[in-house]
TrEMBL record:
This is Probable folate-biopterin transporter 2 isoform X1. Belongs to the major facilitator superfamily. Folate-biopterin transporter (TC 2.A.71) family. Coiled coil: none annotated. The chain crosses the membrane at residues 43-64, 117-134, 140-161, 182-204, 210-229, 266-287, 299-318, 330-352, 358-377, 398-422, 434-455. It is found in: Membrane. It comes from Herrania umbratica. It holds the Pfam family BT1.
Amino acid sequence: MVEEGNFEARNKAVEEDNEPKGLCYFFWGPIHWFKMLAVETHWSFVFGVVSVYGISQGLGGALARVGTEYYMKDVQKVQPSESQVYSGITSIPWIVKPIWGLLTDVVPIRGYRRRPYFILSGLLGLVSMLLISLHSKLHLVFALMALTAGSAGVAIADVTVDACVAQNSISHPSLAADMQSLCTLTSAIGALVGFSISGVFVHLIGPKGVFGLLTIPAALVFSVGIVLAEPHMPNFAYKEVSQKFLDAGKAMWTTLKCPEVWRPCLYMYLSFAVSLDINEGLFYWYTDSKQGPSFSQETMGYIFSIGAVGAILGAILYQNVLKDHPFRDLLFWIQLFYGLAGMLDLMLVLRVNLKFRIPDYLFVVIGEAVSQMIARLKWMPLLVLSAKLCPSGIEGTFFALLMSIDNVGLLSSSWGGGLLLHMLNVTRTEFDNLWLAILIRNILRLSPLGILFLVPRGDPNSSILPTEMLSSKDETEAEEPKNIELVSLINSVDGR
């Protein structure tokens, strides 16, 4: 045993000596890291993470957001309040993520748990994006159905690749952090590149052309289902599927009834729901040629890309400075600054920035970066808190349930914002009451401060659940890679 340990130590030392150092690390370091992950976990897994997180969610998500904004405004010609509601409808597939997670965990197709769901995801994206891009006069109802189907494809791929990450984290525990870093890095870079080029493509080929480009990420996800290395399970007991669904449902309901769980869940839902989303009204005003700054498609893409940079800075700030602070204290200051940051939008709409000779573009860029940074700072401690609320044995499924609760809050926020814009008569050409909508939104952003008592006082390093929930009823089952799903910290809080 001693000789074997010495041999492994010598091998590790040799590998460390072979790693790039100095200035060469900036070029060869990432290549060496990717190669290491591909060797240890299989190249098809790395290809799947890059395709789903980097290309589909990152790059494709950025293109889809900007393309959808202009598609609703210029092609379907809907009002901003209606567009706000429709954006909520297309996010519904993300609310039912636990269902996708359970399906990929307990319902294999033709002996495979992951590959068929990647293929299904890719097909949904291909068909829906082709329908929107090729149909000259697609009715709004069918357009919404196609957009929702495309969103479902991305959500299914997200759940499936998370399950792959979870399985590899179990078989390669020393690489768990590297795999999460791979998810985060590829998604962040993809989003930054996607937003940077989105406006250019909308200007050159139009919103429908952008949807045509989105068939490429869908095709890559489809190819992941073809090449992914996965063990075959020919003799699966499908009769046990219904019982597994019932067991998972009972376990989640039992956990939700615990006060240590439902109180933070209620806070997470309300904190998102009352922070009304009126981004569609602001977008219409940004691009209006009479009352607004009349930003071009390219400018809007660059603005969103700066927002992506702000989100990355928020993640870095939390990781290096704020991650050890108590949940309640941290959320108090973040929620306070979140409400104050919204005043930048109010100053812009009231044209206060021009009185200080600050150009609209510069002021919007600053506001977008600050807002996205604070939104990410709010999102990350809630992710950590959610992980602390998951009982042993159903960690992944319950975590997906908590993310769904957050997504229901975001849906309520989107629909509530659309209702507010409608009540204040903010239309495609009328923005007289937009300042009032912003003011109401900012005040409501401060309201979660009154329910912070629902959040535990503990810090991220302490346990929240009762002792009996921290140990699985059947330790042998808990060790199996079932019902486990990880969610990358890079997922955006403001929609897909």
